[in-house]
Amino acid sequence: MPLPIERYALLGDLTTAALVGTDGSIDWLCLPRFDSGAVFAAILGGHDHGRWRLGPTDPGAKVTRRYVGSSLVLETEFTTPTGRVRLTDFMPPRDRRADVHRRVEGVEGEVEMSQEYVLRFDYGRVRPWVRRVRDNEGREAIAAIAGPDALCLRGDVLPDAVDHRHEGSFTVRRGETYDFSLTWYPSHEKLPRCHDTGERLTATLNYWHAWSERCSYTGPYRETVLRSLLTLKALTFAETGGMVAAPTTSLPELIGGPRNWDYRYCWLRDAALSLSALVETGFTDEARAWRAWLLRTVAGDPEDLQIMYGVGGERRLSEWTADWLPGYENSAPVRIGNAAHGQVQFDVYGEVMDALAAARAAGLAEDDFSWPLQATLVDSLAARWRQPDSGIWEVRGEPRAFTHSRVMSWVALDRAVRAVEEYGLPGPVDAWRAAREEIRAEVLAEGFDPAMNSFTQYYGSGTVDAALLEIGTCGFLPHGDPRTAGTVDAVIRDLKRGPLVWRYATSHATEKVDGLPPGEGAFLACSFWLVKALAESGREKEARLLFEELLELCNDVGLLAEEYEPGLARQVGNFPQAFSHLTLVHAALALERAPGG
After folding, report:
1. What is the pLDDT of residue 344?
2. pLDDT (tens digit, 9 = 90+) per residue, 258-283?
3. CA distances for 509 relative to 463, 515, 517, angstroms
């Protein structure tokens, strides 16, 4: 049985990521990329689907953990009646290798440690050929091969083969150190040389601390904001500049339910919003790399624009089911790939153009490729925005005229018009202005319900959607406009419970729109959107109180999943989630800009 989601921490090397639990078990790791097959998939099943545990044999050990400074180096301390031991886990930022390093240090007394190494390729399905070998330094190692992939486990104490797994125990005394490393390499190549764990630890800490020093945010929530920015950076695929929405697949939005999706891909929306959060806090290099990824990825016919791509820019993300995995706490199906990549979602144009406008304002100049491509995308949108789409939440019902999609289409055209007006960039500005005004007039006439005193989820729906909170923050209407204030109040009335805001109402009555059975947790980004909307509309005290309540939902190392289930007091959904962390950053920035911030 996997641990509750919030009891995991993130390790990452800017190409893939691992989840390690409070019990010292790495229960999720895809190699060599975020979207590769998992070699440890216990989080979606059980121990037999792959994991690597280093922890005390005493199941009652007390656990504390932390990231070392502003890094992704994780320290977990286990205290038993006989002593205390520290486990340090990290993945060196990719130097054309994929390594996980683990260091066990005796702090007090002595602690008996156990090691369980269960390796399964292809999401727990394939048992590799495993053998003991000597590496090029003459050290004993455990090598495993299956198809194109190979892994090598090295360590000061290696476990023994027992019934298709490896197990062992050893005692750590005060002052003693035991190092371990796991290395992926192509199976047709020779075993890579062993890297010294101590040297890699120093280099990894130096890398993350140097990166963190570039953060320009100095507000009262700096530690929390920086942890969110570090998480966003960890979800970046350094080779291309793409950014995944989360490092996991099929962690359920409702435990036991079917809302289980693969988020190990680059959503243009999530990445664009992450980009704006990074740009606003001083990280322009990431903006430059992401823009280059975007331009390469979407080049071609603008009508072929997808809402998501692979980390290398891949377009085909076919969805299939890993039916040998029971799913997290029996939440089936486990999906690999994402069929939503074929949906039309016009809001993506707005988020992308807004993020590129922020990058432009931060000094990232346009070139002969970047601006013409943006202009082509806007031309395509100007011709297509009247079509129904699937909306920001990727509903699997029939496409509709979602109000938020229309508003974000207005944003895309507005940012294009301003690029011409303020930066002198070329474009058919009169046609763009006309389309912008046509969208605005239609939204005000069709998307606002006077009886509700609110904008609606889609034209004529009579229901609200938390994404409508963005109407007042994107410039479509000022916060002082009574229609904006009425929408904020309607979202609070209809979708807020305690500090949490749901995306939209899910029930059997809305199943036709949603295309799925009802029931999910509260989408955390929506609550942070409400903080931002309140802060920017002069309700700063309410916003700050809500923000501080939401921060209590972070786990012990500052991470957030996609959603929160208050009935269970647990995080749910894929973990950690870029959308949750980027909206946390945007909320903190809005509070800083607010009067008295």
Report:
1. 87
2. 889 999 999 999 888 988 899 999 99
3. 12, 11, 10
Domain stops at, among 166, 182, 209: 209
The per-residue pLDDT for range 333-374, each reduced to its tens digit, is: 999 999 888 888 999 999 999 999 998 998 988 988 889 989
Residues 424, 417: contact at Cβ < 8 Å? no
- The C-alpha angle 337, 573, 487, rounded to 5 degrees, equals 110
The answer to whether residues 285 and 204 belong to one domain is no
Residue for token digits 């942070």?
528
What is the C-alpha separation between 246 and 576, in angstroms, rounded? 6
Residue 218 and residue 196 share a domain: no
Q: Are residues 258 and 407 in the same domain?
A: yes
Same domain? 181 vs 145? yes
For 537-589, how does the pLDDT look when each residue is reduced to its tens digit (9 = 90+)? Answer: 999 999 999 999 999 999 999 999 999 999 999 999 999 999 999 999 999 99
pLDDT score at 508: 42
CATH number at residue 441: 1.50.10.10
Q: How far is Cα 100 from Cα 97, in angstroms, rounded to an integer?
A: 10
Distant-in-sequence contacts of 213-216, Cβ < 8 A, 24+ apart? 214/282, 214/283, 215/281, 215/282, 215/283, 216/281, 216/282
Considering the chain, what percentage of its residues have pLDDT values greater than 90? 81
End position of a domain, from candidates 164, 192, 209: 209
pLDDT tens digit string along 150-167? 999 999 999 999 988 999
Say if residue 199 is in the same domain as residue 239: no
* Same domain as 360, residue 234: yes
Domain containing 97 — which CATH number? 2.70.98.10
Mean pLDDT of 425-453: 97
The answer to whether residues 192 and 229 belong to one domain is no
Q: Which domain holds residue 29?
A: 5-209
How far is the C-alpha of 100 from the C-alpha of 179, rounded, in Å? 11
Structure tokens at 310: 């692979």
Cα 201 off chain centre by: 25
Radius of gyration in angstroms for the set of CA atoms belonging to the chain, rounded to a whole number: 24
| Pair 361, 281 in one domain | yes
Handedness of CA 522, 524, 527, 533 (dihedral sign): negative
Structurally, how many domains does the chain consist of? 2
Q: Average the pLDDT over 226-244 and give the result.
A: 96
